[in-house]
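Entry for S-adenosylmethionine complex. Fields follow.
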Amino acid sequence: MMTQMHHGHKPRKRFGQHFLHDQYIIDAIINAIAPQNGELMLEIGPGLGAITQKIGKLIDALTVIEIDRDLASRLKHHSSLKGKITIFQQDALKFDFSGFSKKKNQLLRIFGNLPYNISTPLIFYLFSHISVICDMYFMLQQEVADRLLAYPGNKNYGRLSVMSQYYCRMFPVIPVPPNAFIPPPKVNSKVVRFIPIRTVQQSPQFIYDLHHITTEAFNQRRKKIRNSLGYLISSKRLIEMNISPELRAEDVSVFQYCQLAEKLAKNDQ
Ligand code: SAM
């Protein structure tokens, strides 16, 4: 099927381009973000500016990161955004979010209708800059949103849930059907709000161990943890920590995974 032109632009599949055109959804996203003058607003993947233009009407300055050179150039010459917008034409996965925040001496408010092919790596990359982030609002594939928001015992609860809930509290904002976009994606979407949890900064070793232990546990999610994690931590130690060795990966809470990672990080298993 021929790809439909949208505002004179042919959507590029390799950049995950699905442009929002439903004004009700766009307004709901902007109401949830509630941008204020003076805040450091940063959009990832502004595309043809469906969200950007409306935000530009509310505040004096905003920054965007857009990988597509043609779209970045269109935004640069956009009449209502002129003088307000700073454009980084580059890959968001390589953007120095911490450096940018430090330079501006402000926390970042990040939002975007993310290209689905990079949403999970981008979220993990943003977690590595979490100390400079005030909040985030992302349009995600429904399946990814369900995994982020899942609690223990739910079939969607997995490594992504544990890692994300360690860094952030997350809230669903609005479900979005395929026909809100041009071209429509094959899947449903959901906007999710991320509020970083300001805890004591953990060591890189702890983060590594949290990744490690959740990967090991969920790679064998139907196994009891005494088997899947047995080579990392003994049943005796699990019992001492009040964690039953009979639990399966999907029944272990985020707090318990953090306890386990702490033990590993301290080499106390
Ligand atoms: N925000 C627009 C909207 O809602 O209509 C466009 C959303 S579209 C799903 C994703 C946008 O992200 C596109 O403009 C695409 O070019 C851009 N993009 C894709 N990969 C990117 C990357 N690695 N870094 C920055 N922008 C990217």
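NOTE: Residues 15-20, 44-48, 50-51, 65-68, 71, 91-93, 113, 115, 118 surround S-adenosylmethionine (CB under 6 Å).
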